Amino acid sequence: MTVTPERQTHHCGDQYGVMRDDPTVLVVGGGATGTGIARDLALRGVDVSLAERGGLGSGTSGRSHGLLHSGARYAEADPVGAEECLEENEILRSIAGECISDTGGLFVQLSDDDPDYFEKKLAACEEIGIETERLDAEQTRERVPDIASDVERAFAVPDGVVYPSRLVAANAADAEDHGATIHPHAPLEALTVADGEIVSAELGGTVEATIEPDYVVNAAGAWAGEVAAMAGLDVSMAPARGVMVSVEYDESVPVLNRCRDPDDGDIVVPHESEAVLGTTSVPVSDPDDYEQAEWEVERSIEECAAMLPAVADSPEVRRWWGVRPLYAPDEDDGDRRGISRGFFRLNHAEDGVANATSVVGGKLTTYRQMAESTTDLVCERLGVDAACSTASEPLPGANDPARLDEFVARYDAQGPTDADVVTGQSQ
Questions:
Q1: pLDDT for 68-126, tens place per residue?
Q2: Which residues contact 189 (CB under 8 A, 6 or more apart)?
Q3: DSSP labels for 202-255?
Q4: Given 72, 95, 223, 407, which is the most exposed site by the fewest CB atoms within 10 A?
């Protein structure tokens, strides 16, 4: 095992790092969690390489609605998950700078919504410690003049917006600054297991090499089942697709959440000159091959317009689907909204592969906590005694949007979620 607190990063003819020797840890998956793990490991002095089959964040992270959760959405149904969101919301505000927009959020009750649900959610938020402010209809209209005429009331929470392209790229840049190698467009093609351990990994694309890591972390999100299967492991994913529709809308408003049981089209996420409307939840069997149905777009717009009528006729800028990386050993046959949004750290030593871990589930808001938990396990297995510092160390370029966008371009990390804000483009 090699533990290196500092190491020079070399580059080949393009913008991607050259694979040098065999890393101590191979992280498979370059979304928020994967890059967060690479950063955490590198900061703890562990030699780590990350491989992503596409540009960084090209899976679920860069195809979300970009909501920075306060925890309120899960407060009554999953208080532990809500507490995790609240804690990580506060951490990201302190370390992520221009990867975050502090818009605030509202949970809005319309005339057709259950008033008891409103009170239940508000009470659950207050029990957890989520800061809230109760607003009557007039106060709600003062904050959002375009709100629906049948608004009954609302309460404010500290929701916000994440620009995932910047967040993922900044994590990768910091990992690389601390000795990691980051490989976009380097798909994992095979794993070889012998005597109860992964002994080699074959990478294609920009790497085209077979390496022999001491440890492998599967952070492939909705594709974690496919990666695990390469090592003869069973990771039961239950992915669900959801559509996001971005429309022209340049009013300054908070994130709007419909205060009802989670359903289609119940979130509006504001950007600088657009609003992202979403979303649906439809089971898929293959995260690479699924229907993109027009009814999902129509329903999302219709339902979001019930809260914010102005978006009903706003010109559409772009639409995209993302696939949620839901983990469900006992698969839900419904729309999968009931599957936990918590994360699961699977130590495959218990499954007969001693040097592998998968991290599955979770939310963009809690990526750093997922990375810390996974890195703790890896360091324990490797005998590395080093504490996590990612909750207090700011991301590089955090307060410099231009530098953040340079990172996005470096790692081909531009996704559709924040394409109207982030200027990084693939080179």
A1: 999 999 999 999 999 999 999 999 999 999 999 999 999 999 999 999 999 999 999 99
A2: 202, 203, 204
A3: EE-TTT-EEE--SEEEE--GGGHHHHHHHTT----B--EEEEEEEEE------E
A4: 95
Q: Predicted confidence band at 424 (pLDDT cuts at 50, 70, 90)?
A: low
Report pLDDT digits (tens) over 183-204.
999 999 999 999 999 999 999 9
CA angle 354, 355, 356 (to 5 degrees): 105
- Cα separation values, 114 from 121, 260, 289, Å: 11, 7, 37
Domains of the chain, start order: 25-61+164-237+339-410 (3.50.50.60), 67-162+240-324 (3.30.9.10)
* Amino acid present at 154: A
CA distances from 192 to 100, 189, 236, 245, 353 (A): 40, 10, 21, 41, 11
Provide the percentage of residues in the chain whose pLDDT is more than 70. Answer: 92
Q: Which residues contact residue 384 at a Cβ distance below 8 angstroms, ignoring those fewer than 6 apart?
A: 3, 44, 45, 46, 378
Q: Give the whole-angstrom CA distance, residue 203 versus residue 221.
A: 18
- Residues 109 and 152 sit within 8 Å (Cβ to Cβ): yes
**Model confidence at 17: pLDDT above 80:** no
182: part of which helix (H) or strand (E)? strand 181-183
With a pLDDT cut of 90, the percent of the chain lying above it is: 89
Phi, psi dihedrals of residue 31, rounded to the nearest 5°: -85, -160
* Run of H or E residues at 135: strand 133-136
Burial (CB count within 10 angstroms: exposed 0-12, middle 13-18, buried 19+), residue 299: middle
